[in-house]
Each structure stands twice: as C-alpha cells, then as structure tokens.
C-alpha cells in the first residue's frame, strides 16, 4: 500500500463517516415533520418486526403532519401502537385507511435537549474522523519503518491527511450549526 492509497482510503472512510452522521441527523426531531423520523419504528408484521416503511407508504401531508397509508387493511392498529410505544412522543390519529401523525410543537426546554443531542452526535462524528486520521498516520509511519517511504514523504502525507481531516471536521461543524438553527427556529 502506498501513501496515495492510504490517503484515498482515509478520505473515503471519512466521507462514509460524514454520510452516517448526516443520516443520524435526519432522525433527530425538529419542529417540522420529516418522514425519516419514523425510520426507526418497527411494526409487528405476522410475527416479525419490520420497518414501518416496508408495510406502509409514509409521506408528508403538510409541514407539521406525516401521513401513513398501510398497504394492508389490518395493519393500521399495529402501526398506531408502534408509533405510540416509540419514544418519539407522537400521537397518531386514524382516519379510515389513513393514519395522520401531527407533530406537536416542541417546548424551549425540549429544543435545548435536542441541540445537546445534535452536538453529541457531532462530537462522535469528529472522534470517528480523528480516529481515521490516527490510523492513516500509523499506516504511513509503518511504511517509513519498513523503508517503503522516506521521512519527508511521511511529513507531507501527514500534512495532507491533516488537511483532509480539517475539511471533514469543518463540514461536521457546518452540519451541526445548520441542524441547531433548524431546531431552534420556531
């Protein structure tokens, strides 16, 4: 493995870490309705737990209401029960075949809790990025130790890896700030 390979794989892994962080952010509740909020809910379907999206069509009715259209008639009650039992604090209402999930407005205290959660997720993403940087630097040091690269190459590679790390951490900070602004907007 060469220094260029190490840098490329580190960059790719950091991009994956960033994508995972962004995915986690979509699951954090803001004042607005978001169908991704219900991704973590699993419904009892003939004895097995399956994601809500596999038994119903989840969509937005308006900015504060999620609609759920079950694909089978008997699933409505099970879906409602699963949403009520989740820790999201949502109260679904059934209207014939359609289930409406209104988003209650968040209190100021709840908004602050959510921003803390966003910051914690951001810190975890930064730690993952820094761990990838450490692993890459160790791989470069091993190349130098095995005489596959010079010490000058090591210094250059570490500087490049640091630039990649800084870029990813700045992106994480930007995403955290945007999500916090979205949560605090009334």
Automatic annotation (TrEMBL):
Q: Cytoplasm as a keyword?
A: yes
**What does the record list as coiled-coil region(s)?**
133-167
Q: Where in the cell is it found?
A: Cytoplasm
Domain Ribosome recycling factor, first and last residues per copy: 21-184
Pfam families recorded:
RRF
Q: Which SUPFAM superfamilies match?
A: Ribosome recycling factor, RRF
Keywords in alphabetical order, please.
Coiled coil, Cytoplasm, Protein biosynthesis
Query: What Gene3D superfamilies would the database entry show?
Result: 3.30.1360.40, Ribosome-recycling factor
Keyword Cytoplasm present in the record's keywords: the answer is yes
Q: Which InterPro entries match?
A: Ribosome_recyc_fac, Ribosome_recyc_fac_dom, RRF_sf
Family label: Belongs to the RRF family.
Q: What is the role of this chain?
A: Responsible for the release of ribosomes from messenger RNA at the termination of protein biosynthesis. May increase the efficiency of translation by recycling ribosomes from one round of translation to another.
Known PANTHER family for this protein? MITOCHONDRIAL RIBOSOME RECYCLING FACTOR PSEUDO 1, RIBOSOME RECYCLING FACTOR
Annotated protein name in UniProt: Ribosome-recycling factor
Recall the taxonomic lineage recorded for the source organism. Answer: Bacteria, Pseudomonadati, Pseudomonadota, Betaproteobacteria, Burkholderiales
Give the gene name.
frr
């Amino acid at each position: 493995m060469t220094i260029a390979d190490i840098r490329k794989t580190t960059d790719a892994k950091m991009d994956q870490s960033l994508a995972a962080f962004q995915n986690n952010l979509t699951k954090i509740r803001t004042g607005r309705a978001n169908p991704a909020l219900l991704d973590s809910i699993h419904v009892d379907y003939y004895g097995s737990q399956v994601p809500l999206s596999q038994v119903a069509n989840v969509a937005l009715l308006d900015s504060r209401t999620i609609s759920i259209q079950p694909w089978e008639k008997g699933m409505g009650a099970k879906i409602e029960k699963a949403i009520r039992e989740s820790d999201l604090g949502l109260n679904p209402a059934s209207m014939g075949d359609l289930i409406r999930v209104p988003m209650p407005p968040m209190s100021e205290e709840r908004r602050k809790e959510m921003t803390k959660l966003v910051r914690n997720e951001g810190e975890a993403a930064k730690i993952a990025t820094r761990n990838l940087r450490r692993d890459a630097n160790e791989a470069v040091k091993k190349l130098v130790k095995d005489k596959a690269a010079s010490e000058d190459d090591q210094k250059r590679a570490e500087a490049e890896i640091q630039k990649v790390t800084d870029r990813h951490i700045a992106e994480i900070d930007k995403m955290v700030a945007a999500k916090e602004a979205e949560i605090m907007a009334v």
